[in-house]
Amino acid sequence: MKTRVTIRNIAACNIIIPPLQGKSSLEGLIKPQEEKFFDINHVTAKYIQRLIDAGDIVLVVGDLESAKIQSKDEEIDEARERAKSVGIEVDGRWSVERIYQEIDKKMED
Question: Domain span at residue 26?
Fold first, then answer.
C-alpha cells in the first residue's frame, strides 16, 4: 500500500529519502528548506518518522500512520529492497531495524 506525503527539509544539509523500487536515488534528494512529495509505503513511513523525530524534516501534507500498516514479511522484503537500492548488501539475519540503521549509516557517508 502506498501513501502520498509532502515533507520539508528543515535541516542545514541535503537529505535523501530512499526511493521506492524502480526509482532513481536522486528522486529522493531534498535540499535544505525544500518541500517535496513522495509516494511512500510502510517502510519509508518509518524512515521518515525517524527523520521527523530527529528534527530534520517536517510533514507538510499526508498521514504516515496509514502507510505503516503491512505484514512483517512484506516489511522485511521491502527493507531489503530499499537497502539494495542504495548499495547495501543485506545479511539475511538482519532485522528491519538493523537494515535501517545500515541505510542511515550509508546516507551519512
Answer: 3-108
29-53 in b/e burial notation, b at 16+ Cβ within 10 A? ebeeeeebebebbbbbbbbbbebee
Give per-residue pLDDT as tens, 6-21: 999 999 999 988 776 6
Residue 41 is classified by DSSP as -
Residue 51: name the closest of 71, 66, 30 by CA. Answer: 30
Residue-wise pLDDT tens digits, 65-89: 877 766 567 788 888 988 998 899 9
- Report the distance separating Cα 77 and Cα 47, nearest Å: 15
Q: Give the Cα separation of 33 and 17 in Å (integer).
A: 15
Total number of domains in the chain: 1
